[in-house]
Design a protein that fits this description.
Chain lengths: ~325, ~350, ~325, ~350
């Protein structure tokens, strides 16, 4: 299978679907002439023209809202947030319009809409540009929220997202556009609501999504090498719908779990993971589920502070050892 | 033209297709008399909703269209098959004018399964997609970008249909309006935005007058900032609205460029049905505007011209009362939605509900 | 002690503090001439004049932003959201400006700002006007988020909020403005970060906040009457800061807990409560913590559907019995 | 006036108090020569930041002011003690002009503890509250309401100070700008808004030209929608900016009414330092604007008038290089913030940190 970057896989999904389906259009700031600040949409304006690759002024709420209108009319807009931080300006459309109208119209409309963009911390982008918005968006019924981490998944899940008749918040791993992986040619989909076992193991389950999956895989290596601990790593892939089953099955096997997220601890995905496990696998747990989260502070600029703010290998490994009672708390 | 009784027999307002046949005679006296009936129906309907609200049979927020009837009636008269209409929460008049069943419209307000949206939306969220009515939205300004996107889609699909996008004077102050108007202006340069903005300036956003909400009170002129042609119309005078509506509608249809009309009107009722204290305006002011009530004004004209006489007017009013009585009875007697409806329409597609039903 | 309504207690806190402190001003839609749609600010325009009771146009983001600017200049603005649903339009200011600027300026400014308004469901307000936003705002460091339920607390916590040098999201129990309770005269404060034991008991802990506290109290009565079960009811009062201690202490005593919220289940406060308990009181738990939440659907209009969407006495009682193993799951 | 070497000795730009003494001779040739030095300092500083970025010593996003120097230099010349200044992320010039230590300014970009914000904000978030500089904000349009609120507070506190609020041409399209401008206009009617809007129209928001971002490209005229007086100024010509700045600043000070100036300028550098591909404009276009480079233009004038000669200009440039070399060395040699700083400044008051430090 050909190796491609996360960026290329994403572009491939969108452009292939645009070839197949005229109703698919792209919208966003500097996605056309400029090619996208992450170059995700580079070259697509030339291929599909300005009516399908729509450069917008800086007006996140406005253009997201127009996309909701287009979607209700049967188009399939894909809206780029230059970074997901700017989606705060479009929150009203994203959470209080797109996912509600089907319900309050009694099922008369569909809103096949994708809102995509880089999510999570970067390198020294500081407080206003450093957010992981999974639980922020994940709490709203009517929305779907996904966070693919591999090039394979980002293509397959983007195709699923575009074809989904519902609004989808598509959280890309902002730091990973250049990472490579195997990406099948042509049309394939990765369905929502099914977590991926990124690595099998029997001793402890590490549960994560987005770029922290890679962190967990590194920790799994380390635990294996240093302590002969076999960690199972689960990539949630989608936050809404949420795959409870895969987690529960794994914990029934390992009896121990660590949930890892870049976002802040309170009301985050890791808390939900913990709540689900203790609810559905209470009797299987040999230790409380541990959570590893970003530091409870706005994103700092200085690189040393920033690195200390993101979850680290050490923290995850320590949490794993804690649930294995290998280290005293 | 079928006899009047036939047309109104099922309690529904004459549908737009019929009125289109006479677009050329849009302001002929017969046609005006028909429109008079529509306005009377709306008024009667609204009065019934106010009663329903006071009786506790209609819940949530209720916003009536009393005083503004000529605006929608005039613009919807220029509606053509395939056009779309979208507005905020002050939305009852629109389905009535577009041919929705008044019974289903009322039933929605009563939260019944027979309602336009199965009772799941209520007064603020009327929808009738088949008839071109795209809601019924509750957040001030929130539907404005949505309407502009619809205006884009209509051109993208290479139609000559347009989107009538209604908003209030209060909505002109909120960011989404500004962003959407800018997008409409931009897209319109290439003929890619068939949006007709209709600003219903009823002088107040809740308790705040236009003069207290912006230092520049010429609302149509605000569209100058986006390169959108605009004008004002006397929203109390149906004939003025009709002239404007047919003309600008055709222009948007032909050019694919947005256009904006500020309709000067007045909400003679309180903002919401629960809103009985009105510290923000004087009785005198309301009285002055009532003298220009759109129904009264038209009635006066039609009487003067001899199109209708006092008897016929009484008759029409009685007919409307009867119709609306039936409508209300229907709404009252309809059943609540079945409890399973709680979990449907959350998602389109297979996975309709993602929670647990415990 | 005099009995006052929630509304009166709130108004009293604000007006008394306005008397004491010239820097306190009120802003919002229809709070002046109209008196506030919930009449919370009724009469204050006459008392304090238009420079301190500022009627704004409909522009939530704009006026919230101006309040951030005023606060940085040493004023203490209290911004009313006519309902918290409209705060979606101001999210960018609330989560990405107000609580971040102190950090990214290296501590050079303070933002003593209160954003208040009715939160939670009402009666048939339907999907766009029915939200419980505790975890939505509670996840952001730099913000404080509180949700008082009694008239006593709403006054004492509003005084704390106004005097707090940080931005505070003050979530009022939208359905309870007319409820009465004892409210001390004059100046007193209820500090943030300390939960309240609304009722003592030994058998099971019911944890909640906002109007669900009243629901829990009713259920506690019912459990007492029907099964002689003594339920302890905890009112969290503040979501950020979060009082872990009071919960943990209670669960160490009762060994069983139910977390109740009106908001949706995923990524809600109840999940956090659950995660904290299983983390800090794992060995004390005799049963998994149960969560009772609003139905995972947009707010429905029809009253029968709406009632089914909010947590009910039956659901809470059943959950309590479940954790007591009195009912088979 | 102290000797020039003294004034620039600590590497800081002459402070505003000094320049105020000569407000009446604002455009005297001596003063222009001083301002020329300030602009040269900014330019040299910015070039150094670009190098630092390429070397990986400056992280995140970096937006330089190259090409726009005359705008801030002219307006800050009209700054009076107590005035406030706020802008977006293209903010390096402002602390330099307001008298902040260039060393601390650069150290912030290097993420060092000696930085203006202890290294916690970076390039986009410079702050120097003592000198009236209120940032340094990263969200387009987000600081606009904040500045308007400051303009309110200044009047609420009964001062005659004003808030200089800078924003880009791209920001004019976003809702918060519109909402804030409307509030400013409204409050200004009662003399309650001492905000001076300065729209730096540098022709592009990132890769999008003004003409591609709005159908109505007269940006100052957009303020008409809010009842705010406005005008344009040639932002490349320092003398033009100075004339405008002093005049309108006084007006805002006296009236408490907002005012808006669109400064026509150009960003000759790429949008951000990482942005090397510039598909959105031609080399020719950049070249044409470079010919009107504000520093070059002023240099030409001063040479023509004999205020400065070629030697003095070389000298100044060398001085600036030296100063900035010291500045850069300082930034490079400063230490990172101590790790405890991660947890401070989250909350004001006692409870500085609410998480756990594990
Ligand atoms: C964003 C937002 N803010 C506040 C409200 C509450 N609200 C409902 S209607 C209304 C007044 C709107 O006035 P206008 O746009 O003139 O419409 P009208 O009611 O006069 O038809 C307000 C403030 C809302 N629905 N949405
Ligand atoms: C709300 C928002 N959307 C997008 C961005 C990304 N972004 C950063 S700068 C910029 C262009 C802004 O242009 P302009 O206002 O003209 O300022 P200039 O960079 O030209 O000084 C954009 C789109 C942002 N920071 N905030
Ligand atoms: Mg109005
Ligand atoms: Mg620009």
């Amino acid at each position: 299978m050909p190796e491609k970057t996360y960026r290329e896989a994403l572009r491939e999904a969108m452009s292939e679907e645009m070839e197949r389906d005229d109703s698919v259009v792209l919208m966003g700031e500097d996605i056309g002439v400029y090619g996208g600040t992450q170059l995700v949409t580079d070259g697509l304006l030339d291929r599909f023209g300005p009516n399908r690759v729509i450069d917008t002024p800086i007006s996140e709420d406005g253009f997201t809202g127009t996309a909701v209108g287009m979607a209700m009319m049967g188009m399939r807009p894909i809206v780029e947030m230059m970074t997901m931080n700017f989606s705060f300006l479009a929150v009203d459309q994203i959470v209080n319009h797109a996912p509600k109208v089907r319900y309050f119209s009694g099922g008369q409309v569909e809103v096949p809409l994708v809102i995509r963009g880089p999510n999570g911390g970067g390198v020294q982008l500081s407080a206003q540009h450093t957010h992981s918005l999974e639980s922020f968006y994940g709490q709203f019924p009517g929305l779907k929220v996904v966070a693919p981490v591999t090039p394979h998944d980002v293509k397959g899940m983007m195709l699923t997202a575009i074809r989904d008749p519902n609004p989808v918040v598509f959280l890309e791993a902002g730091a990973l556009y250049g990472t490579k992986g195997e990406v099948p040619e042509g049309d394939y989909t990765v369905l929502f609501g099914k977590a991926r076992i990124a690595r099998e193991g029997d001793d402890v389950t590490l549960i994560s999504y987005g770029r922290q999956v890679n962190l967990c895989l590194q920790v799994a290596d380390k635990l294996n090498d240093e302590d002969d601990i076999k960690a199972e790593v689960i990539d949630l892939r989608s936050l809404r719908p949420f795959d409870e089953e895969t987690i529960i099955e794994s914990v029934k096997k390992t009896h121990r779990a660590v949930a890892v997220q870049e976002q802040w601890r309170y009301f985050g995905v890791a808390s939900e993971v913990t709540a689900i496990i203790q609810d559905k696998a209470f009797d299987y747990l040999d230790a409380p589920v541990k959570r590893v989260s970003g530091a409870e502070v706005p994103g700092p600029y200085a690189r040393n502070l920033e690195l200390a703010a993101f979850p680290s290998e050490e923290q995850v490994a320590e949490a794993a050892r804690q649930v294995l009672y290998l280290e005293v708390v | 033209m079928p006899a009047e009784n036939d047309r109104m027999g099922n309690g529904s307002v004459e549908t737009h297709e019929e009125s289109q046949e006479e677009a050329s005679v849009a302001t002929s006296d017969d046609h005006l008399a028909d429109l008079y009936k529509k306005m009377a129906l709306i008024r009667t309907f609204e009065e019934a909703t106010q009663r329903g609200f006071r009786q506790g049979k209609i819940g949530g927020y209720l916003h009536v269209y009393i005083g503004q009837e000529a605006v929608a009636t005039g613009f919807i008269d220029a509606y053509k098959e395939g056009d779309k209409v979208i507005t905020a929460y002050r939305d009852h008049a629109f389905p009535l004018l577009l041919g929705s069943d008044p019974k289903e419209t009322m039933a929605e307000l009563y939260g019944k399964r027979t309602g336009l949206a199965k009772g799941k939306g209520g007064s603020m969220h009327l929808f009738d997609i088949e008839r071109g009515f795209y809601g019924g939205w509750g957040i001030v300004g929130g539907h404005v970008p949505i309407g502009v996107g619809m205006g884009y889609a209509l051109r993208y699909n290479e139609t000559d249909q347009i989107c009538q996008l209604y908003l209030g004077d209060g909505a002109v102050n909120i960011g989404p309006f500004h962003e959407a108007a800018n997008l409409a202006g931009l897209w319109g340069r290439d003929g890619m935005n068939a949006t007709l903005f209709i600003v219903e300036n009823n002088q107040y956003g809740m308790g705040t007058s236009v003069a207290r909400s912006t230092a520049m009170t010429d609302l149509s002129a605000k569209f100058n900032a986006y390169g959108i042609e605009n004008e004002k119309v006397d929203g109390m005078d149906l004939e003025a609205v009709l002239e404007c509506a047919h003309r600008v509608t055709e222009q948007v249809r032909e050019t694919g460029k947005p256009y904006a009309v500020e309709a000067i009107t007045y909400r003679t009722a309180p903002h919401g049905a629960a809103d009985f204290f009105e510290k923000y305006r004087t009785k005198d002011e309301v009285k002055k505007w009532r003298e220009r009530d759109p129904i009264g004004l038209l009635e006066h004209k039609l009487l003067e011209r001899g199109t209708l006489d006092e008897d016929r007017i009484e008759e029409i009013k009685d007919e409307m009362k009867e119709t609306i009585d039936e409508v209300t009875t229907f709404a009252e007697e309809s059943e609540e939605p079945p409890i399973e409806e709680l979990y449907t329409d959350v998602y389109a597609g297979e996975d309709e509900y993602m929670g647990e039903e415990e």
